[in-house]
Amino acid sequence: MRLLAALMLALVAIPAAADPVRLPILVPVTGFLSLEGTSQRNGALLALKQAPAGLAVGEVVDTATAPENAVNALLRVLDQGPVPAIVAPMLGTQMLALMPTALEEKLPLITVSGTASLTEQGNPWVFRFFPSDRLAKEAHVRYAVEQLGKRKLALIYQTTAYGQSGAAYIAAAAKRHGASLVFSEGIDTDVKDLAPILGRAAGSGADVLLLHLHAGSTALAIRQVAALGITLPVVAGSALHQPATAALLDPKELKGVCAESGASPVSGGSPRLDRFLADYRAAFGADPDAYALAQYDGTQMLLDILAKGARTGEQVQAALAADPWDGVAMHYASDGHGDMAHSVVILCYDGLTRVPKIVQRYDGLDAG
Amino acid sequence: MTGSMPAELTVLAQLLLNGLALGAAYALVALGFVLILNATGAINFAQGDMVMLGGYAAVALARVLPVSGLVLLPLVMLAMAGFGLLFSLLAWRPFRQRPPIFGLLATVALGLTLQEAMNAVEGAAPQAGPTLFGPGEIRFGPLGLSRASLGILIACLGLGLAQAWLLGRTQFGRRLRASAQDPVTARALGIPVDRLIAASFMLAAALAGAVGLLLSGPYFVTPTAGNDLILRAYIAVTIGGWGSLKGAVAGALLIALFESVVAGYASSTVATAALYGAVLLLLVVRPAGLFPAPLGRRA
Fold first, then answer.
1. Mean pLDDT (whole number) for B139-162
2. A240 and A309 assigned to the same domain
3. Among A299, B39, B172, B278, which residue has the least CB neighbours within 10 Å?
């Protein structure tokens, strides 16, 4: 009788398991963050493409830049039926807007946003597969202080929310590591002539220049540092690691410049990474960045959880919170607050190619 | 003290020189903006997006024709002039009998459409276009200027003078000015006002294309690059005098002066605040701008 009941249960379960799970991918593919958002989307889609047939089907929805766009996109998705998790936008303001709904609906949000405060809100439904700004800036400063032996830091940051938040973490990290911030100034994204600010940074007595800028401004700053003959070593933010940013510069302009990032897929370094690189290039005809790889890793973990039978938000959340994941970029495990990524790499350019080499890896970072 | 003076003067001269190149580019954008303003009485909020489109046209042309920007410049201007004609058919012609606000909104819509179209076609990543004189720097004694900036300066000066000649010394220019000042009388006198307005759009788009190419090399191009430029053009025209060509140039140079010199001695955020403070002050003490034009009074 029990055997019959088990057989009946299995028969009932088969069609349910065969139905593909809907996996909404809410990402900013238009607007000012569309470069990074497209990478995020591609990472998720590549993971889906490599998933067992019939397991899940992705639904890409553009969230653009406004928080209300993201909320509307999520509500539209939920109107069409339950989903076990969401690939959620990397834009911090959109994530903050989505979090109350996630809490209410018991819906895990899997993101690669760097905005540190996302995992400081006590919301158990957020899972971040990219090092937070807090960790990234810790590595940024530690490299300048510990590896380059510099103590007087000049910082040029963007006056956006991203830039100001990163600048605050850099200032705090500098204090922690006994360095002084002798120059710190913000610039708008529309500033084209950086010679004035670079001149003042170089004349401030600093022995290293830290950049925390978006992609275009990062490339402009590095180009103008080279043109002005400024000899300060430059350690840039993660925008530089993106192949599209490095492509704007001559390899000579990049010589000696370093940057922090969650990963550097184009640098290769392991058979799994090389395979990811080849698969990504084949699928999208472009080089991947760290956001694509992080979202690929996060989506693969999610798909593995789904393949093991999880179908509700609560089941997925429990697995994400408890299980570790050996990703392509790094080893992921929740710290109890939803931060899954705890490693940051420093990459440097040799002046001969636009492919950087990883020179330092910080694992288990905890900036407190 | 006396020993430090030359160094201080050198710094100031260097900041002025850097600002001059950017100011020249802003001036061309503002001139295109004023051309359409004078021809139609409407504000073309897509002028910045036309610059962006010109930048992408330069990037695309450089892919298939890897030659100097000097060779590509007339090609880009020609292509953009064609686009200007299309733009006039979409943004001005259907609304020419209606109040200027219709045309203004049409340019906003077309500008946003251009941005999203370029985002879809080329992606959001910044892209580098060609430069007129290649990479590197040229020294003028203690002062240095990048070849790209020198190219911007020379090209903008040449194009600005050519436009001044075209508008001031040719029959086309005289007819264009007559149409702008009083289209009804101009029509009665047999001047083809609609065709001249279409020509204004073509000229403005060609200028935008030139600026697009010139800026895409040293400063890159993105789908949203035009947003900053249209704001500067608008402010330049407000400072200079609504509808005044020389006012637009003066306003553009003043903006660049703030961005370069004030940013050099204070910070770029202080420079921006000081610029807008100066604009507010100017609006109070001289509301018609530095060089008031007749259109300003009409507007």
1. 90
2. no
3. B172
Contact B8/A at CB under 8 A = no
CA distance A53 to A35: 29
H or E, element range at A84: none
Measured between alpha carbons, how far is B98 from B105 in angstroms, rounded to an integer?
12
Q: Does A60 touch chain B (CB under 8 A)?
A: no
How many whole angstroms from its chain centre is CA A105? Answer: 25
Instruction: Give helix then strand counts, H and E, for chain A.
Output: 12, 14
Banded pLDDT at A7 (limits 50, 70, 90): very low
In a domain, A2, yes or no: no
A208, B57, B91, B113 from B46: Cα distances, Å: 41, 16, 10, 10
Q: Are residues A210 and A354 in the same domain?
A: yes
Query: How far is it, in rounded angstroms, from Cα A318 to Cα B227?
Result: 45
Cα gap B271→B260, rounded to integer Å = 8
Q: Which two tokens stand for residue B92?
A: 């001005």
Contact assignment for A195 to B15 by CB distance below 8 Å: yes
CATH topology of domain B5-298: ABC transporter involved in vitamin B12 uptake, BtuC (1.10.3470)
Q: Given an 8 Å threshold on Cβ–Cβ distance, is B125 in contact with A188?
A: no
Assess whether A171 and A144 both reside in one domain.
yes
Structure-token match 């039926």, residue found: A81
> Which residue range is the domain that position A138 belongs to?
134-261+345-362
Whole-number Å distance between alpha carbons of A27 and A3: 47
The mean-pLDDT minimum among A206-220, A246-260, B2-16 falls in B2-16
Residue B245 has a pLDDT of 87
Residues contacting residue A6 through CB under 8 Å, at least 6 positions apart: none
Q: Quote the number of domains for chain A.
A: 2
Q: Over the stretch A30-56, which tens digit does the pLDDT of each residue have? A: 877 888 899 999 999 999 999 999 999
Please state, in angstroms and rounded to a whole number, the distance separating the CA atoms of residues A75 and B291: 54
How does DSSP classify residue A309?
T
Judge if A352 and A236 occupy the same domain: yes
Both tokens assigned to B78: 């020609």
Rounded Cα gap, residues A234 and A154, in angstroms: 10
Residues B2/B6/B12/B18 CA torsion (nearest 10 deg): -170
Tokens describing residue B95: 């609304």
Confidence bin at A9 (pLDDT 50/70/90): very low
Pair (A106, A160) in one structural domain: no
Residues A28 and A70 in one domain: yes
Torsional sign, CA A201, A206, A208, A211: negative
Quote the CA–CA distance of B129 and B131 in Å, as a whole number: 7
Question: What percentage of residues in chain A have a pLDDT greater than 90?
Answer: 84
B124/A32 touch (CB, cutoff 8 Å), yes or no: yes
Which among B15, B128, B267 has the least Cβ separation from residue A248?
A: B128
Distance CA A26, CA A28 (A): 7
Q: Looking at the predicted structure, is the pLDDT value of residue A2 above 70?
A: no
Residue A75 CB contacts under 8 Å (≥ 6 apart), including other chains: A101
Region A257-285: mean pLDDT is 96
In a domain, A98, yes or no: yes
CATH code, domain with A319:
3.40.50.2300
**Chain B residues close to A215, C-beta within 8 Å:** 125-126
Same domain, A18 and A118: yes
Residue A7 belongs to a domain = no
> Is residue A105 assigned to a domain?
yes
Any idea where the domains of chain B sit in the sequence? 5-298
Residues A299 and A352 in one domain: no
pTM above 0.90, yes or no: no
Write the ipTM: 0.82
